[in-house]
Each structure stands twice: as C-alpha cells, then as structure tokens.
Amino acid sequence: MSLKKTFAAVVLSTSLVLGGSIAAMATETTSTPVSAPAVSPTPKPRPWQEYKEAMTVFKTAMTQFKADRITFEAAMTAHRTAMTAYFTARKPINDAFKASVDSARATLKAALEAATTNEQKTAAYNAMKAAVATATATREAAVKALGPVPVKPVKPAKPVRPTAPPKPVKPTPAPTVSPN
C-alpha cells in the first residue's frame, strides 16, 4: 500500500511542477530570439602552433639578450676601469689614515712607558682616542670628497626557453598469449 501512495505522490508532485510551466509556456505569445552559440573567428591554435609562436618570441628575446650582453660586457669593462681609478685614488687616503693611527699608537706606547700615575695613563689614552677620531674624520671627509663608489651595471636576464608540448602517445596493443 505504501508503494502505491509513494508512486501517486511522485506523479502528483511532478504534474504540479511541470504542469504550471507547460501552461505558462502555452499562454506566452511572444517568442524570444534564440542566440546561436558564439563561434570564435579564429580556430583555437594547436599546442605546436603555440609552441612555434613562443619559439619565435624566444628567438627575438634571445637576439635582444645577446645585444644586451655585449653592452653589459662593455659596461663592465668601463666599471672595472672606474673601480681601479677609484681605489687608486682612495689608497693614499687609507695610507695616510693608517700612518696617523700608527703614529698615535707609538705615542701612546711611549706615554704609557713614561707614565707613573693613573692620571698620566688616562691622559695618554684620551690623547690616543682624540688622534684616532681626528684621523677618522679626516679620512671620511677625503673619501666623501672622492665621490660615490662606481655602480656595477646590471647583468641582463637570459630568456627562458619554452617547453615543447608533449607528443601524443600511441596506444600499444595488448600482448597476446601464444599457445605453446
């Protein structure tokens, strides 16, 4: 009995749901234009066509990279020359600083050997600190007057080669068992 009632309920609910929409469709007098599926004007390129286009772009980028690399090598040669000149100009500044600090150390050593009281030793250390501070300030001013360190040119980035699409795999026939 329950199966009959369930079947009747399903039929009744289906007719109510579909019956109203069918009646609504029957009363509708105007028809809406049905649009056809949009067809793209160009067919979708195949993977190999995309790969060939990517290779063309890659070859162009590679040609540009080679030109940029030649420019980079020339800029690096100029940079090396500028760095050599910069450090050649900076060497006397550093040598003068080193000589000043060595002189201050020698003076400190002599003052400490001659000192008999703690006040004399403290005065010798303070004189050493003042001499090193003066030498440091002189060196920093000279380096600042020398100008900034030459900036290294940026190495061009090598373009990435596109990967080829995988080749289609042919299905292999199933092995057959030969009778012995």
TrEMBL record:
Bias-annotated ranges (Low complexity): 145-154
Span list, region Disordered: 145-180
Pro residues compositional bias, start-end: 162-180
Protein name: Unannotated protein
Protein species of origin: freshwater metagenome
